[in-house]
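Q: I'm writing up a methods section and want to include an example of the input and output format. Could you take the sequence below and give the corresponding predicted structure tokens, formatted cleanly so I can copy it straight into the document?
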Amino acid sequence: MAISAAARKYYKETDWKKRGQLLEELIREEGMTEENALRRKIYDGRYGTGRKRGKADLFMRGWMSLDYLQSGGGFFRTDRMIRKEMAGIRKDWQLSAAEEYGRIGEELLQEEFRNLTHLCIEISRKSRMGGSNHFGAGSGDHRPLGQAMEDEICRLAYEVPKLLGAEEELVLFTRAASREFCEQFPERTDGFYRRVMG
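A: Here is the clean output for your methods example:
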């Protein structure tokens, strides 16, 4: 599926309000195609609807849940807790859309996961300038941003799914996070793929 320039602009934007405006413009321009209907469904599922819109980013919550399962929840991790967290991630990330909508669902979810990864890189970049510490790549981290984000992507997109036995279930996230990382840090691409394939 080819993604139009307007859709590409939508996926590059990380502010939820601006994304909503761009999605409305995209729908006005292209009509309510199957792809745009699914984009709307994913957007509403990610950011909420009505009064709840913008109160939480459920894709970000899924990212943080993966982090918790690997680090914070590691000491007390039980099979029941893992199943519960994975069910939450499945719901937050709308993984059923890939099953329900087939190839279109997979492609649009991957674009949304790229947007999530872009957002996390952007937050880490800003936090290094502003003094806070997010995603293990903030101002307290003396590694170059590219190295810190490579470590984060390797951990969340490769190590955690393997640890949980969820590599197949999270493959769309793994592919999308890898692609976005390599687009943001092209100089690290070869080393990144050697690391994850090795």
